[in-house]
Amino acid sequence: MAFGFHRARINQRLYGVNMYLLDTDTIIFSLKGNAAVQKNLLFHINDPIKTCVITLMELYYGAYKSQNVIGNLAKIKTLEQSLEIVTVGVESVEIFGLIKSQIEKTGSRLDDFDLIIGACAMTHNLTLVTNNEKHFQRIEGLKLTNWMCYPEA
After folding, report:
1. What residue ranges do the domains of the chain occupy?
2. For residue 48, what is the DSSP state?
3. Measured between alpha carbons, how far is 51 from 96 in angstroms, rounded to an integer?
4. Could you read off the pLDDT of 95-145 as tens digits, one per residue?
5. How buried is 40 (Cβ within 10 angstroms: 0-12 exposed, 13-18 middle, 19+ buried)?
6. What does the DSSP assignment read for 2-42?
7. What's the CATH architecture for 20-144?
8. Are 8 and 124 in contact (CB under 8 A)?
9. pLDDT reported for residue 135
10. CA 33, CA 101: separation in Å to the nearest integer?
11. C-beta of residue 47 within 8 angstroms of C-beta of residue 18
């Protein structure tokens, strides 16, 4: 078991901490001022909230093809300072291979970036926060939540 994965499990077990990995769509909803996502961010303010380097790649791609390149780049730079960025390391590669093969055996496919995001979440024992639940639920064992729904107090 990779050290990071082991440490994440210990933190969650000892401290009862829910740890989250924000998917690209959730960050975009937040940047656009979606009330439910923003309320969930406040509701989970004491929980570790992270994003993946792959998500940042997708955000930069979107910024550079947008009408407001400079403004969107500034938002991403601010985001990078606000969240811990989970990198894709050697600890995720086997999980990526496993989940990609499992999905393809069912005759289905999933974009490699999404598979990498899922592998990162699983490696670090994070719950993936996405509005694209139907898409990601094909990854067996991946914990999902959707912050487009208002939190239950």
Report:
1. 20-144
2. -
3. 17
4. 999 999 999 999 988 999 999 999 999 999 999 999 999 889 999 999 999
5. buried
6. -HHHHHHHHHHHHH----EEE-HHHHHHHHTT-HHHHHHHH
7. 3-Layer(aba) Sandwich (3.40)
8. yes
9. 87
10. 37
11. yes
